[in-house]
Amino acid sequence: MDDARLFTKRRLDAPAGFFEVEAAGLAWLDEAARTHDGARVVRVVEVHPDRLVLPRLARVPADDAAATEFGRRLAATHAAGAPWFGCPPDGWAGDGYIGPLPLPHVRRRGSAGAQPDDRPSDVGWGPFFAAHRLLPYARQARAAGALSAAGARAVERVCERLVAGEDTVCGPAEPPARLHGDLWSGNVLWTPSGVVLVDPSAHGGHRESDLAMLALFGLPRLQTVLTAYDDAAPLADGWRDRVGLHQLHPLLVHAVLFDGGYGAQAEAVARRYA
Question: Which of 3, 122, 182, 210 is flagged as catalytic?
Answer without folding.
Answer: 182
